[in-house]
Design goal:
Blueprint: E1 2-6, H1 11-22, E2 27-31, E3 38-45, E4 48-55, E5 58-61, E6 67-70, H2 82-101, E7 105-107, H3 110-113, H4 119-128, E8 136-139, H5 142-152, E9 155-158, E10 168-169, H6 172-175, E11 186-190, E12 195-202, E13 205-212, E14 229-233, H7 237-249, E15 254-261, E16 267-273, H8 279-285, H9 289-309
Parallel strand pairs: 1-2, 1-6, 6-7
Antiparallel strand pairs: 3-4, 4-5, 8-11, 9-10, 9-11, 12-13, 12-15, 13-14, 15-16
Helix pairs in contact: 1-9
């Protein structure tokens, strides 16, 4: 059984559900907004962790789950009473904990996604994978920022945490505010000229989109009156192979990798998103990412049944 957990209005979840329906696949979907209608009974023995998830009249045995796709985005409901909120949060945490130890394919395990909570740590993993990384400074010292800018000229900055932040050019106005850094260490990087490329890795497959935009951070181009045009491209085989290898090393069956192709043809890697909202790129380019993710889940289901019942089950 394929288990999908997330919010029904979240487009990456919606697209996978659509693809599973098109494939006439059997799955169990739990909407995170319906946790108040769900219960989870867990038991542990010498063979592992077992459990039964019940949502109204539907029941899922955790032992039957062969693959999971989850986007565990629990949004607080201010209208819920305290007891109901506590129930939903406890059940959500039980599921998140189980995703880390479930003996099946999980896209993606919460523990593997934690590397993105620290941009400096993730940058080390990116460098170890063989990608170029921009010259980087993490500091709360304004003097170090000024020296870094003097050395590299054009500099951008962003948060060092996993919380989404807008990549911003360090101009004179921002430089004059650097006294605020004492309360908030920040990541500064030498600006890399070139073309943005987003690569989605799905198992062994890669789907790449080139982004044309004059904005510093194309994700927020409309905020500055600009636009972002996306088109599907083929990656050089060596870069595609490196993206797959890096995702595997990070234990991420699905990842969104942010690259920039320099004028000399070399690729610089900025970040690896462990829970990518791939639907935006799919909608803009037609890249069949949801179908690839569905194949990955179905292949895991097939492999699980073959291992359990033997070939030709």
């Amino acid at each position: 059984m394929i288990f999908i957990y997330g919010r029904a209005e979240d487009s990456p979840i919606t697209r996978v559900l659509d693809a599973l329906n098109q494939a006439d696949a059997e799955y169990f979907f739990l909407d995170a907004a319906a946790l108040d209608k769900a219960t989870l009974q867990i038991r542990i023995d010498r063979h592992g962790v077992h459990g039964e998830l019940t949502v109204e009249q539907r029941c899922l045995q955790l032992d039957d789950v062969s693959a999971v796709y989850t986007r565990p985005l629990l949004v607080a409901d201010p209208t819920s009473d305290a007891q109901l909120t506590q129930h939903k949060q406890a059940l959500h945490q039980q599921l998140v904990d189980w995703f880390d130890i479930a003996p099946c394919l999980v896209v993606n395990r919460p523990a593997a996604m934690q590397a993105n909570s620290s941009k400096p740590f993730q940058a080390q993993l990116i460098g170890e994978a063989g990608f170029l990384v921009p010259a980087t400074l993490i500091t709360s010292d304004p003097a170090e920022v000024r020296a870094f800018r003097q050395q590299h000229g054009n500099v951008v900055f962003k948060s060092i945490s996993g919380v989404r932040s807008i990549v911003t050019v360090l101009d004179d106005t921002w430089l004059s505010r650097m006294h605020r850094l004492s309360q908030l260490p920040t990541q500064f990087q030498a600006q890399v000229p070139g073309v943005d490329v987003r690569v989605h890795v799905v198992g062994e497959e890669t789907y790449a989109a080139e982004i044309c935009s004059a904005a510093t951070d194309y994700r927020y181009a409309h905020h500055v009156g600009d636009a972002a045009e996306l088109r599907a491209i083929e990656l050089p085989k060596a870069i595609a192979k490196r993206c797959v290898a890096m995702s595997k090393a990070m234990n991420l069956p699905l990842s969104g990798i942010d690259l920039r192709r320099r004028a000399d043809g070399h690729y610089v890697c900025f970040e690896v998103n462990p829970m990518p909202a791939y639907s935006y790129f799919e909608a803009e380019t037609g890249l069949p990412i949801a179908q690839a993710l569905t194949r990955l889940l179905l292949n895991a289901q097939h492999t699980n049944k073959e291992a359990k019942y033997g070939a030709g089950y």
